Amino acid sequence: MLVGPDTFRRLCRARELLAEETEQPLTIREVARRSRISPFHFIRQFEALFGLTPHQFRIQARLDRAKRLLATGGHSVTEVCMEVGMSSLGSFSNLFARRVGATPSAYQEQARAATEEPGVLPKQLFPGCLTLMGGLPASAFRNFREASAAAAPVECGSVRQGAAYANQTHEHHG
User: Fold this and answer.
1) How many independent structural domains does the chain possess?
2) Among 6, 20, 60, 120, which residue's beta carbon has the most beta carbons within 10 A?
């Protein structure tokens, strides 16, 4: 489904509203109203654009925040449950285990065991592609180095740059 630029901006803003960490999160109906889209159409367009319904997106945002809190903070599982806006510890633990693949306490233990410095996310919690890139030597990024070496060093506002621009402009217009 293609959406116009205005609708795209409104849906992106709606996604930000859904992910906000507020004491009283907006209802899906309220987010749709603020997006100036009917609730049913809003849900359809949101899912088509982002691959999740607004409700699924909000749940995923809460679980992502819970993972960060469990990995970096000194919070108990119960505190994290309440902090991310879940009202039942049992429902939170069950949902977390189904979506993440480990119970909140097991995830917390693994994250803390892998953390070398308190408050710093361990490498194991970064996406695989970033971990892989971080371990590569500088020579692996040959294209970036070649591109920067091939580019002529031109300083902003230099006389040479201004003269080259003037010559190009004159050639095209004169």
Assistant:
1) 2
2) 60
